[in-house]
Specification:
Two copies of one chain form a homodimer.
Chain A: H1 5-20, H2 28-35, H3 39-51, E1 55-58, E2 64-67, H4 76-84, H5 91-95, H6 101-124, H7 127-131
Antiparallel strand pairs in A: 1-2
Chain A binds a DNA duplex (39 and 39 nucleotides) through residues 4-6, 25, 27-29, 38, 40-41, 43-44, 46-47, 50, 57-65.
Chain lengths: 132, 132
Amino acid sequence: MKLNRASALGVFAGIHLARQGKKAPIQGKEIAESLGTPHDYLLKVLQQLVKARIFMSERGPAGGFQLRKDPDQITLLDIVEAIEGPIDGDSNVLHEIQAQPNAKHSLESAYNDVARFARSLLKKTTIKDLAA
Amino acid sequence: MKLNRASALGVFAGIHLARQGKKAPIQGKEIAESLGTPHDYLLKVLQQLVKARIFMSERGPAGGFQLRKDPDQITLLDIVEAIEGPIDGDSNVLHEIQAQPNAKHSLESAYNDVARFARSLLKKTTIKDLAA
DNA sequence: GGCGATTTACTCGGATAAGCATTGTCCGAGTCAGAAGGG
DNA sequence: CCCTTCTGACTCGGACAATGCTTATCCGAGTAAATCGCC
């Protein structure tokens, strides 16, 4: 697992939306200025979260982004995995190396343990927690 | 943190050397064939471990690589950090984003917790454990 | 003045470049063994 | 025959490309409001 700039932007964008409530859509432009990040790039990140059905978007004037669920129903894991892809032990890297199967297995389970821990930890924290 | 092909190769190379004992140097060519990986690339990985003083190398005919320490004194963390660099929470990515300080801090400590867990887990396992 | 088609301004959406890290390759530096030559 | 010198083969070492992923940018699709024209 890794922490991209993109996934961090996704989390903070979620916090920004949570703070505004669900009244009206918030424009990407406003979020970008708030986070001090390039507008066009942030949009691409937000798009991924819309595809993952975590955010919802509306086009046209007065359009923008909103949370699709309540802030306490959105975990960090939801956002991070929507952007980075699933958090696993990267076992595909191991399988293309020839080595003793039990050594491969031991290393793989070590990495899987780390991945499991990361998943459970990120699942505990919600957007609501961070927006407080 | 992430699991590169390079760090996996470093671990398996360490296992290969541990299995041979400390009698004579093992050539990179032999390790590369054993792991089914490009020879020239593996050398670059082994070089990093030599620089980190985990392996030792000898040139010339009958040269090769050896472990510098006992297999039970070399942890997975030693090898992985020698190749990937230190395992941290990638907090540098966070600091260039403008956001509420407490939200940034919460996210950063979540990632630091994962990094700490990964470090402690990788520190528990030694090359000797995997070579058995 | 009221209604509707049209234009306009504004938003997100997806396809397209630029930058950087990881992976892969090549040639040179160092080292020992063995052969060649002279004593 | 023995010692010294030289050549050559073999190893690692570090500098140089190629590939893939992350980041950044651009232009087009969609939408609602405002404008203009007609009734």
